[in-house]
From TrEMBL, chain A:
Lineage, uppermost ranks: Bacteria, Pseudomonadati, Pseudomonadota, Alphaproteobacteria, Hyphomicrobiales
Stated name of the protein: Choline ABC transporter permease subunit
Biological process, per Gene Ontology: choline transport; glycine betaine transport
Transmembrane segments: 48-68, 74-93, 100-121, 141-168, 213-234, 254-273
GO annotations of cellular component type: ATP-binding cassette (ABC) transporter complex
Main location: membrane
Automatic annotation (TrEMBL), chain B:
Name of the protein in its database record: Choline ABC transporter ATP-binding protein
SUPFAM superfamilies hit by this protein: P-loop containing nucleoside triphosphate hydrolases
InterPro entries: AAA+_ATPase, ABC_osmolyte_uptake_ATP-bind, ABC_transporter-like_ATP-bd, ABC_transporter-like_CS, ABC_trnsptr_Choline_ATP-bd, P-loop_NTPase
Gene Ontology CC terms: ATP-binding cassette (ABC) transporter complex, substrate-binding subunit-containing
UniProtKB keywords: ATP-binding, Nucleotide-binding
Domain of life: Bacteria
One function term, GO molecular function aspect: ATP binding
């Protein structure tokens, strides 16, 4: 019986491989276009960040953080930690990673928020995409790293795409959550005053869901950062590269330094982005 | 106006009447079903009650055979226990609930429009201009300031910020919240939040206001204050208000007319005194039992009407502690001269609050004198009170006997 089962293997893997092959054969122009456009965006932003003198950029970050949060402690942390990054020699890699994270997050928001809204308005759609979202979050990253590599070639782009696949479920889920928890009373109040579907979305649903959506964005950023090392495996520039190199050459010091730079970037992004959520909470208290 | 209809007639649910020009809202044979409409309606037509329909089809009978005429400028209260269908009917007026059968005619830009069949564009227009709503849980947007909440309806209409501001500030002044315009709604107490809700409803200048248990979530004292404020505003604004309440004392205080609902049907529709004096069935009587008639009734609800008074040589005769009284009326029916024991005496007068405006032996008072005040007035006089209508014509007499009868029913 077992013999029969093993000898009649269902060609699941080969079918998927053939599908990817078919995509590369017939959709090459499309994938090339995405690859060129994405790498231009990521490289362009990286070039811009690196064109600005490092110290001026650090000052700009500090001023921006102060304008948002009015916290001296946060500003001091940003300045000192970024100076440490410069001192260790990881400034360029940090900016490359920042650029990758920004574009991956932007892509996730552009796709995730509308999908989340659509899913919140159509329960059947959410039921349909839920298994897909689960799959995107649980399937080991390396598994889809291979096809993205085949479709988009080596470099930053497969890194961004893999990151987007991994991080996209967060904004979709949280947007769906935020919109579908709008109290029926608020929705009815808007309808009773003649709101159209569009006005309902922009004047009631989105403002109400905003704290949740922002939490989704923050989560998306963190998930993107956690993909930095894996992105480096397919050739994406950034802080992942020295980590991979350190792993290959058993270089403990380089591994730690690059790791600390990733942590610093994560903390800064988290602290800068998380605030609006907390402010909303205080208001409701 | 208190109704002087025969008990049997008053108890009946009003039948469909032809449209009248002064009706703001007309509900005709309205049925609202949640669930499988066709089967449920068929069952209801066979006389099945709500529970049977639910058991057999799973559908909820929200409202059935509701016929109501709501006049321009009146406050009509839909009263009943929770689940009686009062909110369901209210929400049909602006189309929040879908009508399964019948008509929901709303006076929109001078013509009666059927909300149930008018189409999305007209419905939106009605919601923008003609009908506004106040909600039990306020329905305010918590991330907006008070001012932006009040201006919400105007914003939806597409009005610019500058134009909006003038109107909004006027409405805030009206509900006494001028100093709170820039606060977040969540900083306000419940009573104040509902004032914001009221201001928002007034801001669109809609003629018809739907109020879905607006004061039920508030403390009794605040509720009382807001009821008074609403009545004061209504004196000036003359809106048509459909008010949902589960509290008969609130209904009696606020309503010009009250529709009492049970199981999705209207069991009685009439003026407060009508409900108090002639409850249509045991359900209404149960509500009425706990009410204090002194809070509700007016002298004209208990008086002996002019037609039943004894007359002698054209003069109305009455008995008092001071002797036999003869009140002569002019040709229009207004009290003219007063004779007590054959001697001419002066006719006194009090206003509706019971304050003496003219001293005299027999007191003339407006017919809508509250019963409480009437007791006081009668106590200080030796003679029955002569009640006159708004044109000054004698409507009837109110003596101790009448008052006791009214209280005991």
């Amino acid at each position: 019986m077992t013999d029969w089962l093993t000898t009649h293997k269902i060609p699941l893997g080969p079918v998927l491989a053939t599908a990817i092959e078919w995509l590369t054969d017939h959709g090459q122009a499309f994938f090339d276009f995405i690859a060129i456009a994405l790498s231009a965006l990521v490289d362009g932003l990286t070039d811009l960040l690196l064109w600005i003198p490092a110290l001026i950029l650090v000052a700009a970050f500090a001023i921006g953080a102060y304008a948002l949060h009015r916290s001296i402690g946060l500003v001091a942390f940003i300045v000192l930690s970024l100076l440490l990054v410069i001192n260790l020699g990881y400034w360029e890699a940090t900016m490359q990673t920042l650029s990758l994270v920004i574009w991956a997050t932007a892509t996730c928001i552009v796709i995730g928020v509308p999908v989340g809204i659509a899913a919140a308005h159509r329960p059947w759609l959410y039921q349909a995409i839920r298994p897909v979202l689960d799959l995107m979050q649980t399937i080991p990253t390396f598994v889809y790293l291979i096809p993205t590599l085949v479709l988009f070639g080596l470099g930053t782009v497969p890194g961004v795409i893999s990151t987007v696949i991994f991080a996209l479920p967060a904004p979709i889920r949280l947007t769906q959550l935020g919109i579908s928890t709008v109290p029926e009373a608020l929705r009815e109040a808007a309808l009773a005053y003649g709101a159209t579907k569009r006005q309902l979305l922009f004047k009631v649903e989105l403002p109400h869901a905003m704290p949740t959506i922002l939490a989704g964005v923050t989560q998306c950023i963190m998930l993107s950062l956690s993909m930095v090392v894996i992105a480096a495996l397919v050739g994406a520039d950034g802080l992942g590269k020295p980590v991979v190199r350190a792993l290959n050459s058993v270089n403990i010091s380089m591994g730690f330094e690059a790791g600390i730079a990733i942590v610093i970037l994560a903390i800064i992004l988290d602290r800068v982005c998380k605030r609006p959520e907390r402010r909303a909470k205080r208001r409701s208290a | 106006m208190t109704v002087i209809a025969e008990p049997g007639v008053a108890a009946a649910v009003p039948a469909s009447k032809p449209s009248r020009a002064d009706n703001a809202v007309e509900l005709r044979d309205l049925a609202i079903i949640f669930g499988r409409t066709k089967e449920a309606l068929a069952l209801a037509d066979q006389g099945a009650n709500r529970d049977e329909i639910r058991d057999r089809t799973g559908a909820i009978l929200g409202a059935y055979k509701v016929d109501l005429d709501i006049r321009n400028g009146e406050i009509c209260v839909l009263m009943g226990l929770s689940g009686s269908g009062k909110s369901t009917v209210l929400r049909a007026v602006n189309g929040l609930n879908t009508t399964a059968r019948g008509e929901v005619m709303v006076c929109h830009e001078g013509a009666l429009v059927d909300v149930a069949t008018c189409g999305a564009k007209t419905l939106r227009d009605i919601r923008l201009k003609t009908v506004s709503m106040v909600f039990q849980q306020f329905g305010l947007l918590p991330w907006r300031s008070v001012r932006d909440n009040v201006g919400f309806g105007l914003e939806i209409r597409g009005m610019g910020a500058a134009e909006r501001r003038a109107i909004v500030d006027e409405k805030l002044e009206m509900v006494g919240l001028s100093n709170w315009a820039d606060k977040q709604v969540q900083e306000l107490s419940g009573g104040m939040q509902q004032r914001v809700g009221l201001a928002r409803a007034f801001a669109t200048d809609a003629d018809i206001l739907l109020m879905d248990e607006p004061f039920s979530a508030l403390d009794p004292l605040i509720r009382d204050k807001l009821q008074d404020d609403l009545l004061a505003l209504q004196e000036k604004l003359h809106k048509t208000i459909i008010f949902v309440s589960h509290d008969l004392s609130e209904a009696l205080k606020i309503g010009n007319r009250i529709a009492i609902m049970e199981g999705g049907r209207v069991v009685q529709f009439g003026a407060p005194a009508d409900i108090m004096l002639r409850p249509a069935d045991a359900y209404v009587a149960e509500f009425v039992k706990r009410m204090n008639p002194l809070d509700v009734l007016c002298a004209d609800a208990v008086m002996t009407p002019t037609a039943k008074l004894s007359r002698e040589a054209g003069a109305v005769m009455m008995d008092g502690d001071g002797g036999a009284v003869a009140l002569t009326l002019c040709s229009e029916g207004k009290p003219l001269t007063l004779m007590i024991n054959g001697q001419v005496r002066t006719i006194g007068a009090v206003d509706v609050s019971g304050a003496v405006t003219r001293k005299g032996d027999v007191v003339v008072a407006p017919a809508e004198l509250p019963l409480k005040t009437a007791i006081d007035v009668r106590r200080q006089s030796n003679y029955p009170i002569a009640l006159v209508d708004q044109l000054g014509r004698l409507a009837g007499l109110c003596d101790h006997e009448d008052i006791y009868r009214g209280l005991l029913r």
